[in-house]
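Exercise: predict the fold of this chain.
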Amino acid sequence: MNSDLEPIHTAIYTNSDSRKRDFAHDLLQGRIPDALGFLMGKKGGYFSDARLAAFIEAEARYEHSGMGDAGEQSLKTRSTGERKRALLDFLLKQKPDFIVLDDPFDNLDRAFQEELRQRLLDLSESVTLIQLVNRAADVLPCMQAFARLDGGKLVEFPDYKPVTESQDNIKKLSIPPAPSGAPELPAPPGAPELPARDNPLVIMRDVRVEFSGKTAVTGISWEIKPGDFWELRGPNGSGKTTLISLITGDSPKAYGQDLHLFGRAKGSGESVWEIKEHIGYFTPAMMDRFRGYHSLENMLISGLTDSIGLYIRPTENQQSLARQWLELLGLERSAGELLRNQSYGTQRLIFCARAMIKHPPLLILDEPTAGLDDHAARLVTQLIVKMARESDTAIVFVSHREEPGLQADKLLELLPGPKGSSGKISMRSPG
């Protein structure tokens, strides 16, 4: 790649240490590395979740995003796919010479991914595409040149294979299964015994939920038993969050349903906190609440106290348990380091372990690999599989994306229809 070449579509592989937002900003401001010299003097556009977030914030402040006509549906009320469609429409109206695509397929269901992929392929006939990508499977087939972003430095490769190989050669964490006869996952002393495996933790029968007269889900019947490993899958807006909120006690729509949680009928006098005592939960959106100066060890211990960070002196047993988890993750030497200074992949591992540290009856992991590169996602997947295979905790894994190496034993797939999403259950052999 050099400035003498015609404009060429370029895929740039990123990871959690890449300063891709700064890199994209430099491109748009005309600070072009030699390898992309063909962009010099050209007009660019930026397709990213960060750009969308800025439009949504402007809409909240000024009642108009600046993206479209005032009479159009607000960005906040649109699905992720609809928002990305609107952003691409907006960018094309600016008639750019090139567009920086920052992980364009993140958080999109399969249908919206295919729609966006086809639009971008059509667009590649007239506009140069610079794709920042953290998943090898997401690279557009029109890409002609390949590179990697190491921090803020662009490293060229003659083809794509070296990029994936370089990721594989990164110093790896390894989360192997426990060998025969070895202890399983670290468990807190005196952890209560879980219910028998044939005693359901969650029972839904013919659940139907409406919002403003519109049916979100209908006819959902679902049982979660101790030791189950479930995947909850469905396109954007299909009702995954609705179902999870019924289980966690966060939705008033649970009242009046045929719903039993941890041995009690919903609405029989239980408090939200009594429900949450039985649940470990993680979604990447939670990470914004943990912006303090917390060490890896203290963050794990806070999972035992259900606090945002640790503000009490931990016991020796709590410290010992946290260190056992850090050893399992290969992070024992980083126990005192600040979580905020770790890579996204390491942070996700810590948060997943934090949700599991009490060995709750039910663990819900909502999009735990969203936004991670292949390497980090593989580590998180290894940890989830280990937790599922070496404990009696029931796990519900929620994701838009099929993760290599993660095949739950049971699948609940939400299928949107004109009268709301219905559910299809499939049983699969353990991987």
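Check your answer against the key: The longest strand covers residues 214-224.
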